[in-house]
Design brief:
Elements lengths: L1 H21 L47 E5 L4 E5 L5 E12 L2 E9 L7 E9 L19 E3 L6 E9 L4 E10 L4 E10 L5 E11 L16 E7 L6 E7 L3 H4 L3 E13 L2 E6 L5 E10 L2 E8 L3 E3 L4 E12 L2 H7 L13 H18 L2 H15 L1 H27 L4 H15 L8 H19 L23 H16 L6 H18 L4 H27 L2
Parallel strand pairs: 1-6
Antiparallel strand pairs: 1-2, 2-3, 3-4, 5-10, 7-8, 8-9, 9-18, 10-16, 10-17, 11-12, 11-13, 13-14, 13-15, 14-18, 15-16
Helix pairs in contact: 4-5, 4-8, 5-11, 6-8, 6-11, 9-10, 9-11
Length: about 550
Amino acid sequence: MILWVALAFVLMLIWQAWQQDYGPRPEAALPAAQQQTTGSARPTGEGVPAVPSVETPVAKIQETLKSGQRIQVRTDVLNLEIDTVGGDLRQIDLPAYPVSIDQPDVPLRLMADSNGQLFVLQSGLLPGDKQGQAVDHHAVFSSDQSEYQLQQGQEELEVRLGWNSDEGLQVSKVFIFKRGSYAFDIRYEVNNSTGSEWRGHLYQQLQRTPPVENKNMFMMHTYTGGVISGINPVTNEELRYEKIGFDDMVESPVNRDMKGGWEAMIQHYFLVATIPNQEEINHFYSKRVDENRYVLGMVSKKPRVVAAGESDQFGFTVYAGPKLNDDLALLAPHLELTVDYGFLTILANPLFWLLHKIHALVGNWGWAIIFLTLIIKLVFFPLSATSYRSMANMRKLAPRLKSIKERYADNKEGYQRAMMDMYKKEKINPLGGCLPILVQIPVFIALYWVLLESVELRQAPWIGWIKDLSIKDPYYVLPLIMGASMFAQYKLNPQPPDPLQAKIMMYMPIVFTVFFLFFPAGLVLYWVVNNVLSIAQQWYITHQMEKAG
C-alpha cells in the first residue's frame, strides 16, 4: 500500500509536468484591430493600461522595447540597470546567488530585456482627465549620473530621474535602495508649476515572456507565472493568494478592483513583486500583448490631485530576490505564500521552521534534512509500530492465504469468505497496515514541498560528491541506495497472493529508481533516510514479535 501511494504521488507530479510542457494551449488572441472595445475605451499608447473608468483599450503593441541611456546601480545585494525610457527596471542580477556552483562569479539574472529574455518592471502616471499629460513608461527621463553605487558605510542609496513638460509640470522618479535588502521603493514626486491642477493615476506592471524550460518530464517542475493578493473593497473578502498563469491571461484576464495587496511574477526560488499603499484601492489587470509577452499590473482607482503651484509624492515598494519566508512576511500580508507549499502549507510551515532551527544547530542543510526526518519518524513511531505489527501478522498468514487461494481457485466468492473468516479468527485487520501509514502521508508530502521550494537548499552542499542539494546526484549514488532500500522494504512486507501483483511490486523499486535519478539530491536524501528508518523500525518490531512467539 505504501508503494502504491508513493507511486501515485510521483505519477501525479509527472502528469502535471507533462501538462505544463506538452498539454493543449489556448488559441491565440485576435489581433488588436479585431478586438471589440466597450464603453468609452480609447487608445492609451503601446502597452499602457487603461484608466480604471474604462475597460481594456485597443492599443498598438511594440515589437521591441525602446531604450535610451542605461543607468547602472549597485548595492550590496543587487546589480540593476534602469533605462531612461520610462525609468523602466530592465535588468537585475543577484550577486549572492550564482547561476551554478561551477560559475561562482556569474550572478543569477532575475530580470532582463536581452538574449531572448524579457522580464521588466514598468511604471508611470496616467492622466486623470482628457487634457492631462501622461508620464508613462514611454516618457524619456534624464539623470545626472550613469552609475550609482552603495558605498561602504552607506545605509541608503537614492537614484533620481527627472522629467519636465513645456507647461511647467515636473516629475521625479526616485529609486530608494537600502543596505542588505532586496526590497526597494519607487517614489514619484510631482511639482505642479502649471496654471491648473494636475490629476493622475499611478500604475505599475510586470511584463515578461515565459522562461524557456528543459522539456524533460522526469525533471521537477514548479510554478512560473503571476500571482495576486488583495481585499475586495465591496465585500471586504480577502484574496490571500491566487495564481494567474500565462494561459489564464489569455482565457480569463484579471479585471478587478482590490484594496492593498500585491502582484508578483514568481519562479522557482525567486520572485519580483510590487506592493502598493495598503490603504488604497487599485484596479488589477492582466493581458497578453503578443504571442509570447504577458503583462500583470495594477493602476490606482482614485487619481492623485496636485493643485497649481503645489507638489505631492507617492509610490510603491518592489521586492526582487529570493523567496526568503521571513523577509516576505514583513513586507505585505500573505506575500510569504509565494514560497508555494501548495494545499499543505499549514503542515509545511512548521516543518520548515523546524528544519531551519536544526540547520542553525548543525550548520549543514543535508544533515538538517536527516535529523528532521528522524524526528518525524520518532513522532510517528506509535503509528508505524501498529502498521508494522499488522504487516508482520499478515506475513505469518501468507502461507495460509496461498493455500486458501489454491483451494478456492475457481470460486472467488468462496475465497473472499474464507479469507475474511481467517482474519476474524486470528483477530487481524487487513487494513491495519495501511491506515497508520495514510495518516502520515500528508506530513511527508508537505516535507517534500518544503525541500523542493526552499531557496536555502539551492547550491547547499552536504558531503563529498553532493555539492548542491537542489540538483540531481551527479553520480546517481543516492537514487541507487533509495532503490535498494525500497527493494528491502518489499522483501520485509507480506507478499501479495496474486502472482501478477507480486511481480508488479517487485519491479516498482526499479521504476522508482529511474524516476529519482533526476530528482534534486535533497529530496532523494529525504526518501533514503525515511526508507532506511522505516526498514529499521519494521525489522525491530518484526524481530520482537518473532521472539515473543
